[in-house]
Amino acid sequence: MADLEKQIKEKAKEIDKILDAYLPEEKGHASTVMCAMNYSIHVGGKRLRPMMMREVYRMFGGREEEDVLNPFMAAIEMIHTYSLCHDDLPAMDNDMYRRGKKSTHAEFGEAMGILAGDALLNYAFETALTTFNKAGDDPEKMYRIAVALSTLAKKAGIYGMIGGQVVDIESERKEPGEVTMDTIEFIHENKTAAMIESSMMIGAILAGALPAEIDIVESIGSDVGLAFQIRDDILDITGTDETLGKPAGSDVINGKATYVSLAGLEKAREDVRILSERAIANLAGLGGSTGEAGVFLKDLILSLIERDR
In sequence order, what DSSP letters do the residues of 51-79 get, joined into one string? Predict the structure, then answer.
C-alpha cells in the first residue's frame, strides 16, 4: 500500500505539470478570475480522474499523449474543480475551507467564486477542443476526439454530474423517510460515478478501443463510483474525526438519508464487495490484469474502495 501511495503521488505530480501547461496566464483586465481559477486548481487533490483516464488510455495501447490525451486530462480536472468551487458556495454547502485552504469564494468573494467555476467549465472545453488542431487530416483521430468531447459534455451535464447534484439538493429538503434507495442510487450514479465513467471512457475512446470495450469501461466506472460513494457513507458511520479529517457521523446528526441508513451497514458492506469484485473482473476481462497500466489501475480502484478516509 505504501508503494501504491508513492506511485499515486508521483503520478499526481506529473499531472500537475500537465495542468500548469494549460492554465491561463494571470494577466489582462480579467486577471482576477484567472487568479481564482488557478488558485482553485492549485488547492490540490489526488488528480484521480485524469490519472484514471491516462491509465485506461495506456492499457488500450494509446500513444501520443501530448497530442490528444493531455488536453482532456486537464479538461476533466478543470470540470471537477469547477464543481467543487460551486459546491463550496454559500447557496450550496457553504464551506469556507477545502483541503486545509480557504475555498475559492472565501478567498476571492462569492461573485468571483461563481465566475471562477463558470470559467473553469468553459475553459475545460476550450482546452479539450485544442486537440482538433493536432489531429491534422486524420479522420479517425478527429472522430475519436469528437466522441470524447460528447462523452465529457454529457457526463458533466444534466444527464450526469449536474443531474445528480440537483437531486441531492432536493433530497436535503425532504424528510429522511421520503428519500428512497432509488433516489440515493441515482444521486451516487450521477453526482459521483458519472465523472469517473467519463474519465475512463475518454481514455479508452482516444486509444481506439472498440464500442463494446468502451461500454465495459463505462460499467467499470459506474461500479467504482457507486462503491466509492457507498464506502463514503459507511465511513461516516464507522470512521473517526481523526481518520476522516472531518466530523464523523455528520449525516446522522443532520438526519440525511444515505445508502447505509436505508440498506443497513452489513448490506452496504456486501454491496461494496459485489461492486468492487465485478469492476475488477470486468477490468481483467479487458486485459487489465496484465501490463503496468492495468495492474496500477486495479490497485488504484481497490485503494479507493477500501480506503479508511
Answer: HHHHHHHHHTT---IIIIIHHHHHHHHHH
Lowest mean pLDDT: which of 3-12, 132-141, 147-156, 238-247?
238-247
Whose CA is closest to 43, among 110, 111, 117?
Answer: 117
pTM: 0.93
Structural contact between residues 213 and 57, judged by C-beta atoms closer than 8 angstroms:
no
Mean pLDDT of the chain: 92
For every residue of 153-218, DSSP letters joined together read: HHHHSTTTHHHHHHHHHHHHTS-GGG--HHHHHHHIIIIIIHHHHHHHHHHHHHHT--HHHHHHHH
**Residue type at 114 in one-letter notation:** I
Interval 225-244: pLDDT, tens: 999 999 999 998 886 545 54
Residue closest to 152 by CA, chosen among 175, 168, 129: 129
Residue 55 sits at the vertex; the CA angle it makes with 152 and 53, to the nearest 5 degrees, is: 10
SS3 256: coil
User: What is the per-residue pLDDT across 109-145, written as a single tens digit (0 to 9) for each?
Assistant: 999 999 999 999 999 999 999 999 988 889 999 999 9
Helix (H, G, I), strand (E, B) or coil at 98: strand
Q: What angle do CA 223, 229, 121 make, to 5 degrees?
A: 90
2-305: CATH topology:
Farnesyl Diphosphate Synthase (1.10.600)
Please compute the mean of the pLDDT values over residues 211-237 and round it to a whole number.
95
Q: What is the tens place of the pLDDT at every residue in 45-94?
A: 899 999 999 999 999 999 888 889 999 999 999 999 999 999 999 999 89
Predicted local confidence at residue 175, as pLDDT = 81
* Grid cell listed for 302: 481497490
State the DSSP code for 112. Answer: H
- Domains of the chain, residue spans: 2-305
Identify whether the C-beta of residue 233 lies closer than 8 Å to the C-beta of residue 258: yes
